[in-house]
Amino acid sequence: MASLNVLLLPEPGSGHLMSLIEAGKRLLGHGGRSHAHEFTVTVLVVRPPTPESATEVDAHVRRVEASGIGVRFHHLPAEAPPTDCGGNLQAFKSRYLELYKPHVRAAARELRASALVIDFFATTVLDVARELAVPAYVYFTSTAGLLALTLRLPALEREVDADFEEYEGTVDVPGLPPVPAGSIPGFMGRKSSPNFTWFVYHGKRFMDPDGIIVNTAAELEPGLLASIAEGRCVPGRRPAPPLYPIGPVLDLGGASDEACVRWLDAQPRASVVFLCFGSLGWFDAAKAREVAAGLERSGARPPGRGRLRDALRVELDAGEPVARRPAGAVAAVRGAAPERVRARGRHGRGRAAAGGQEAGQLGGGRGAGAGGAEPDGWWVGGGAEGAGEGRGDEGRVPEGRGGGRVVARRAGEAAGGDPRGCGGGDSDRIG
């Protein structure tokens, strides 16, 4: 029986690592043992650049190894991270992974790789796969919408003669309605920033692999997937490589007694709205108020209350610990928001509105400043709805203590705490 060894190369942050491991589990489940081949899945572990993120990744690797699911790990030799990225997180990730090309080449030879699946920040490694004549696939952890935009970005760079946030018109992304230029995700950066340069580079390289694995479902984004497959996102070029929508990729294992789960289970049916926009973005106060206004204008009515306009007001950094909030007030639980909790919306406890993983993050916490950490958020409920806020600058790692928060509270409650909006979690981590 022939043996096939598929190598997975995630970005060193735990969020991308866990997502790619879950994708590897699906590969094992669908084709791990067939009549003709035996699959093995080996994760190439890139050493995270900070001790904190390394500890988090090591703990997750140990948990997966102890689970007996069959995913193997191969730790690559450590490289010193680049020091001249000026806080440009996307450029940092891309350059850091580029340093590992020799180690990926050596591992592919040693482990006799049959295929290589790489994180979308690692497109420079496609050169290694081509050199070794190994089939290569890009794993895109976010939505087809962001994939379409990234493929379109090299052409948009030429078509739009100003920074997107200053351009008054709309941009065309096939499969989407006209997009206000100012709505282009801020983490892509200004045109002059290294972040933007790297996103343009990745957008070009996405045309080179043997396929793109996307963390979405065909039923969720059929128009976007069709636009990408037909080549409409890359004018004048061939259609995109074959697309494999395998999402949503969710980690539903582990303990279910976390505080956010217990709190959610205690809420009235259909009384919770949870918004999660990923772990890399920040919303300033104005953006958070837009979200709150949108919820109010939607006409949603908390059970037993009037319209949201009458039930809520938004404050910056209310500063009142959960345990001290008056009975009957809107409860908030800050912490990791695992996929199994998000999936609970299917059971009637809440409604979920989610964007791409890279699009922004409502709520403070370590996800706001960590780049690859578990998404942190504010779960707001108790018969009302709210939004969270963090801060950032063009996709850069904010200095000092960052993240901030906006919580929704019942009208009439006194403001408390420091209104600066600079609490929430450590922001001195990359990865």
UniProtKB/TrEMBL annotation:
GO molecular function: UDP-glucosyltransferase activity
Region of interest called Disordered, as start-end residue ranges on this chain: 323-431
Signal sequence extent: none
Matches recorded under InterPro entries: UDP-glycosyltransf_plant (IPR050481)
Gly residues: compositionally biased ranges: 357-387, 414-425
Composition skew (Low complexity), residue ranges: 323-336
Record's compositionally biased regions (Basic and acidic residues): 388-399
PANTHER family from the UniProt entry: GLYCOSYLTRANSFERASE, OS07G0502900 PROTEIN
Protein name in the entry: Uncharacterized protein
